[in-house]
Amino acid sequence: MVENTFNNPLYFENRELSWLEFNQRVLDEAKNSDNPLFERLKFMSIVSSNLDEFIMVRLASLKEQLNVGINKPDIAGLTQKQQIKKISARTHKLVDEQYSHYKRSIVPLLKTKGINLIHTKDLNEKQKNYLEEYFTEVIYPVLTPLAVDSSRPFPLILNKSLNLAILIKRNGEEVFATVQVPAVLSRFIEIPNNGSKHTDFILLEDVMKLFMQRLFVGFKVICTYPYRITRNADLTIDEEDTQDLLIEIEKSVKKRKWGEAIRLEVAYDMDERLVNILKESLSINNKDIYYINGPLDLTFLMKLYDLKGFNHLKYDKYNPSTPLDLLGEEDIFEVIRRKDVFLHHPYESFAPVVSLVKRAARDDKVLAIKQTLYRVSGESPIIKALAEAAESGKQVTVLVELKARFDEENNIQWARRLEKSGCHVIYGLVGLKTHCKITLIVRMEEDGIRRYVHLGTGNYNDITAKLYTDMGILTCNEKIGADTSAVFNTLSGYSEPPKLNKLTMAPIGLRKKFMMLIEREESNAILGKKAKIIVKMNSICDPGIMKTLYKASSAGVEIELIVRGICGVIPCIEGVSDNITVRSIVGRYLEHSRIFYFYNDKDEEIYLSSADWMPRNLNRRVELMFPIEDQRIKQRIIDILGIMLKDNVKAKIKNGEGEYLKINKKGKKVINSQEYFSRFAQNIMKEYTVEKEHDIFIPIKKNHK
């Protein structure tokens, strides 16, 4: 019998098509009538935003490869050319479904809730007069119409900007013109409606179309239609020959605005003459033109979501609770000295992480703070605390990852601000992104130097920590502290890759560690022992890991994968993946934690990590995986995984054809894992509050004669 090497392309799903199916699951949430209406708007906006990034990066990369002659089959057997063709077909279908639902369901539902998105044909005379005044005073001064003729070439159109294509005529000659819809103005404009209970809005581009003739005095405006282009935004930087990475990335970010046009979106009924002009001027193929039956760029719905007075159409506000391990505690350093602290965001607050850095910045006993920053918020309290620590004379070292895609400009600003404060700012290792999430605080205490460490699965971003599910620990474990120092020395200097005690680091040993852990379960299964793996992550598409999982599955290892997005693994293949299940959870919060469970012949092991099972994480990024050794925390994470595996509301199961299907709830207890964890955290807080109230000593008053 020939041993299965698991190289058959039919065993794998293409990475890009798998991602598009994830975006379909996001769209399904926009269509889900169980979700509040304004949350459905948000999901609809996220679909568009996700697709923009996918086209700017993934599709653009495939086209670049094809342009330089690369057309090799991937692990699923698809060449670049075949992938582009399939992506185009799937994306067109996805967009058509998105807009069909927007027009047929979302817009009518908004109207029933008092929000009316109206067209110019529905305006009454009073509203037209109001808009004409608004156009004159607010819109007109901002506009810059650009005509194209023999002396004026086709202008550079900004990436993702919304524009109007206009056909004008004078003396029998037709001329093309374009004007950008100004992003500095609100996309939707409220207009008076004679005291009606509902609120009328009109889109900015529709107002511009209504008064377009004002921009072309002496010409006849034949027609006006919106269009939008998406450009290649995948930065290519030769780090080896770069003297100053910060300056080089600044230059590249600017080029992103003017990369090759990858997609053209136009109004579904755009005049064919305008389509041809845009197509020729932008060098766009027919398959890359999207005819949109509705407003272009639905990301504006996120702004509509922020309208005041509609909280009843959103999820109930959730206030993260104090982490279970910190309830009733005041001195965070004392708590960490006593025990490891587990953090489960966003159900439990991210505030303790911020507070730890703030406290360290002001603590006279703290000598040094070291931290990696990948994505931070606009007004990051952590950045302020690090700057304060440096200004007070502490040794502060910050690794700012300049190559965090689409956060480059933000991170450059933070890097410069931190440098001005006196921080040592480093930009990581050549050729690698630093993606690990780690903080080290060095403190002089009565019994000597002690190192306090935070390790997490998510970014040091106080905003996304309320929206993403992540996990982390606070510890002063000596071996982890020593490992953390070694990692920072490697990142900041010329230290050889360290031999670590507890942590595992990519790209040095993380792949090897994962392989060993999977193969150990396989060996146990071959010996007839129970063998089980549970993994929760964002994406899995690494060929080596997937083949190792198939080998383990065929040996009898039970493997349960909870994968939010890309999943190249196909379950239910006879003799290959019979023992593998794949599910995806898409809900109110973005699933972001990476958890790894191995049964290990009853001696269960749990690891958390910043890494997914993707080639980029294991080969081209600095990632960390850390063990959970505190039995109390280990059991809590095992319980969390158990709840996720029982989710039958927001989870979908992948079948052998690659489809994600709803779970039949008939006869089963209904479990929404995200709601469960929210309730759990809140109930713990309530129980603690009640206990504290009962602890209050109330003296008994006695009557004395």
From TrEMBL:
UniProt keywords, alphabetically: Kinase, Transferase
Keyword hit for Kinase: yes
Source taxon at top rank: Bacteria
UniProt name for this protein: RNA degradosome polyphosphate kinase
